[in-house]
Amino acid sequence: MRKQSAGRAASRGKSDVDRRSFLAAASSAASCLLLPRDVAPIRVPPTRHVVPSSVRVTGRVTASGRGLGGVAVTDGLAVVDTASDGSYELISTADQPFVYVSIPSGYSIPLNESGTARFYSAIAGTVGDEVSAPFELAQLPDSDERHAFLVMADVQAQDVEEVTLFQQQTVPDVRQTVSDLDVESFGLACGDIMYDHLDLFPAYEQGVMSMGVPCFQVVGNHDLDHSSITDHESTATFSRHFGPPYYSFNRGSVHYVVLDDVFWYGSDYLGYLVYEQLKWLEADLLRVEPGRPVVVAVHIPVLGSRHVRTGNPDPGIAISVTNRDALYRLLEPFDVHIVSGHTHECEHLFEHGVHEQVNGAVCGAWWSGPICGDGTPSGYSVYEVNGQQLSWRYKSTNHPLDHQIRAYPRGADPEAPDEIVANVWNWDPAWTVVWYEGGDRRGPMSRRTGRDPLSMELHSGPDLPPKRPWVNPLPTAHLFYAPASRDARDLRVEAVDRFGRSYSVPVPTHGPGD
Amino acid sequence: MNSESKYDLLRRILLSPLLVVASHQSGNHSATIREAGTQSIEELVRPGHLVLTDDGRLGRVSRVIKAPESSHHSELELHGENGAKSIHSSRELRFIYCFDPDGHESAA
């Protein structure tokens, strides 16, 4: 969070409600709720309205010394376009920490020394009412209509041991994947990069440096300064490393938007989008042609289905965006693909005309083993873009790209003792999953909600992961069942994804624990 | 995402009598208050309460305009964090932090 100069602070005055005192009051309320009822009532701090002074930000967006017109520049509130000579003027306020550009298609992603994207200029702490913020971009040698990106959700390293696992397992895997893609690529760390220990951000940055692709970052609930009493202040450390928590950029025909949907109220968080971010998004999307693909990256799923799978009537307020209708309204004109993380599981949802992909975790079940609670392997998603067409696959760390199914023998799920089971973690309704016996196609498998047998073995019973004994096998809707006789031989499961790619695995004769 | 224990903590906070969640999702426009039963939002919200609205605003309720006979929903005048006043239907409230107008915690 930016510091105010004495002059600007002195210009503040009139009484009313400001964000800081508002949320201080709210968080004080939340904290006091944990106290016994006979504790003396707290005082709500007196509220006052603070009007931050105006700051005139000017600059040029250039490439090889030539001005670039039509580039969106923002302070997170207002959005302006550069003139044909690349110049812009933005009237900001003294409490906005950054001015930043929406990187246009066809230009490389500017980098920090660590390899993370640097599309922003810090204006915090500048003295006076005039700030200059120029941006120099470089034109790509080739078109970026074909490009790729990797969604890495929940690296969630808590200590040196875990961030070392990220560096030694995930980073080389990503590097190889990018090399195999052989196309302009970037990474999206989809929140919970850390597990509250923000002093490990530099170790993550070292990993990015080794990956060899520019990385954008999404803020997660474990990337916040938990000592902050307001949402606004909670991203201060994140922003020192990675810039603003919400922004946009363009690659080829796709407009990318990164949002901060974690609302910190002083003692915990909600999935919630604040007004100024929604207004910024509205202004940002005004510059995008209707019908164009828009990829939205958030940490907390806009709408997961965990509540359905666990029998609850409503989505949990910390695992969904509670005011998501406001977001859906803004996204209506576009071909939208939301990518999220947070719940350490894979699923695809199609709601309000939007396809949301909840991504499995880089750390799996918090670095306690090879899979997430729903049986999805530790890993990340690989998206390939060709013009306006997106395709995607889940990449399991330390496995080839065609590792998309885990099959279990008859009886592996005690609730289905006569059936074989297959976990197809990246399944969506456009997939087909069938089974074979002795080379004969027996038909489609039946999809039911259940618990992955390997996850049951790892995450329940007496031998729990010592460091994470609280990990649970999650009920998941991407399990497939088929009846198989006791003496059935040569069983196989075949899945075909929505892009026509076929995957096939033999059903083992022994399951986990055998 | 966090461990179950932290969810439990969050749940405890949100189910406390002093911090109420409007349960719009199931179409049930009411709030369940532990130890106080279920109340309509109109019965619950009072001037001085802090709220988060569906359009992302943070504000303090400055006035409750009772619902006309033609509508089931009252309107609320909010004093926003930027000093702006706005009018919202009570059904647009997402989270309500209860304080009484003179700054003490509410006995809701």
Features:
heterodimer; A: 514 residues; alpha+beta; six-stranded mixed beta sheet; five-stranded mixed beta sheet; 17% helix; disordered N terminus; B: 108 residues; mainly beta; six-stranded antiparallel beta sheet; two-stranded antiparallel sheet; 2 helices; globular; disordered C terminus
Instruction: Output the helix-strand order of chain B.
Output: HEEEHEEEEE
Trace the largest sheet of chain B across and list its strands: 1-8-4-5-6-7
Uncertain spans of chain B: 1-20, 22-30, 32-36, 99-108
Radius of gyration of chain A (Å) = 24 Å
Task: Describe the protein.
Chain A is α+β, with helices and mostly antiparallel strands. Chain A has helices spanning 6-10, 19-32, 160-181, 201-211, 236-242, 275-285, 306-309, 324-331, 453-459, and strands spanning 54-63, 66-67, 72-74, 79-81, 87-93, 98-101, 120-122, 130-132, 135-137, 146-152, 185-190, 215-218, 247-251, 254-258, 262-264, 269-271, 293-297, 335-340, 347-351, 354-358, 379-386, 389-396, 406-408, 419-423, 432-437, 440-444, 446-451, 475-483, 491-496, 502-506. Chain A has 9 helices and 30 strands. The radius of gyration of chain A is 24 Å and the shape is globular. Residues 1-49 of chain A have low confidence and may be disordered. Chain B contains 2 helices and 8 strands, in the order H-E-E-E-H-E-E-E-E-E. Chain B has a 6-stranded antiparallel sheet, with no helix packed on it. A two-stranded antiparallel ribbon of chain B has the order 2-3. In chain B, strand 6 and strand 7 form a beta hairpin. Chain B is globular, with a radius of gyration of 14 Å. The model of chain B is unreliable at 1-20, 22-30, 32-36 and 99-108 (pLDDT under 50). Chains A and B meet through helix 2 and helix 6 of A and helix 1, strand 4, strand 5 and strand 8 of B.
Strand-helix topology:
The complex is a heterodimer of chains A (514) and B (108).
Chain A: H1 6-10, H2 19-32, E1 54-63, E2 66-67, E3 72-74, E4 79-81, E5 87-93, E6 98-101, E7 120-122, E8 130-132, E9 135-137, E10 146-152, H3 160-181, E11 185-190, H4 201-211, E12 215-218, H5 236-242, E13 247-251, E14 254-258, E15 262-264, E16 269-271, H6 275-285, E17 293-297, H7 306-309, H8 324-331, E18 335-340, E19 347-351, E20 354-358, E21 379-386, E22 389-396, E23 406-408, E24 419-423, E25 432-437, E26 440-444, E27 446-451, H9 453-459, E28 475-483, E29 491-496, E30 502-506
Parallel strand pairs in A: 1-8, 1-9, 10-11, 11-12, 14-17, 17-18, 18-20
Antiparallel strand pairs in A: 1-2, 1-5, 3-4, 3-6, 6-7, 10-21, 13-14, 15-16, 19-20, 21-22, 23-24, 24-28, 25-26, 25-29, 27-28, 29-30
Helix pairs in contact in A: 3-4, 6-8
Chain B: H1 4-14, E1 19-21, E2 30-33, E3 37-40, H2 41-44, E4 50-53, E5 58-65, E6 75-80, E7 85-89, E8 93-97
Antiparallel strand pairs in B: 1-8, 2-3, 4-5, 4-8, 5-6, 6-7
